[in-house]
Design brief:
With 282 residues, this protein is of the alpha+beta class. Helix content is 38%, strand content 21%. The protein has eight helices and ten strands. It has a five-stranded mixed β-sheet, covered by helices on one side. Helix 5 links the parallel strand 3 and strand 4. The longest helix is centred in the first third of the chain and has 27 residues. The two termini are 27 Å apart.
């Protein structure tokens, strides 16, 4: 029973879909299906019930999932401790400027307890680079939000936050309990600079071409709304500054919180970081 096969199994068990699991693992579906069938042969039991309605874990599969997660977590800690002992005891993490919250606090505490000898360096970036310096080789792993171009990257979703319209507190729409994007038609939005990842720009503009002032940082977004009555979007859990308010947007998908690193990077400190992040944000 190889660790690689257990990782395949965990991916299928978490996605409950062979196609999505294969995409997550950056492989095609046939070899993944063969690996799971071989694993079922090795354990002598069916791990998944497959039907036209989808894929579900069997009772045996649920037991193996708990054990596989524990075993893979231990393997990651072993690799990270060996890497630290060999001198690779620094991990540079990219984050979007202004990123805070209980998930990050839990992650910092958990990672420090797991790797007290590892120095974690934090690099904050502005809103023009959703990968937080990863593509430029400035960080090892990024804790950020999607969507963005994922070519050449491995992305692990940690959670998703509902979003709302950021408005002046005296804006006529601020009194509403909720809004739809159509309610903001014709308004000026804050924009990111030209050259920003188009998927990222499109999401934060509600999927439409907009006009308005260009911003780079979270505090600039708030200031242009405060001074100009511009509108934009923000996660609902981001506390607005005085004079501003956030109204839920009903027809916008939530903002995905993700950990991302370069595809093929086998640094065990990264793997351990992602494992800890999944627990902290889960």
């Amino acid at each position: 029973m190889e660790l690689r096969t257990l990782r395949y199994f965990v991916a299928v068990a978490e996605e409950l879909h062979f196609g999505r699991a294969a995409a997550r693992l950056h492989m095609s579906q046939p070899p993944l299906s063969r690996a799971i069938k071989q694993l079922e042969t090795e354990v002598g039991a069916t791990l998944f019930d497959r039907s036209s309605a989808g894929v579900t874990l069997t009772a045996v599969g649920a037991v193996l999932l708990d054990e596989a997660r524990a075993l893979l977590g231990h393997a990651e800690r072993v690799r990270a401790r060996v890497a630290a002992a060999a001198g690779a005891a620094t991990l540079t993490v990219g984050v979007l400027g202004g990123s805070t919250g209980p998930g990050m606090t839990r992650l910092a505490g958990a990672y420090r307890r797991r790797h007290p000898g590892v120095e974690v360096r934090i690099r904050e970036t502005d809103l023009t680079d959703p990968t937080c310096g990863l593509r430029a080789g400035l960080v090892d792993v990024a804790l950020t939000r999607g969507p963005f171009d994922e070519t050449g990257l491995t992305v692990h979703e940690l959670g998703a936050d509902p979003v709302g319209a950021l408005l002046r507190a005296d804006d006529p729409l601020a009194r509403r309990d909720s809004l739809k994007l159509a309610d903001l038609a014709g308004r000026r939005w804050f924009l990111f600079p030209e050259g920003t990842d188009p998927l990222w720009q499109a999401y934060w503009n509600g999927g439409e071409a907009r006009e308005g002032p260009v911003v780079r940082a979270i505090h600039e977004c708030r200031q242009v709304v405060l001074w100009n009555g511009t509108v934009g979007m923000t996660p609902l859990d981001h506390e607005p500054t005085e004079g501003l308010t956030v109204v839920p947007l009903l027809d916008m998908p939530p903002s995905r919180v993700v950990a991302v690193w370069k595809a093929g990077d086998a640094n065990p400190l990264i793997r351990s970081f992602v494992h800890a992040a999944a627990a902290a944000y889960g």
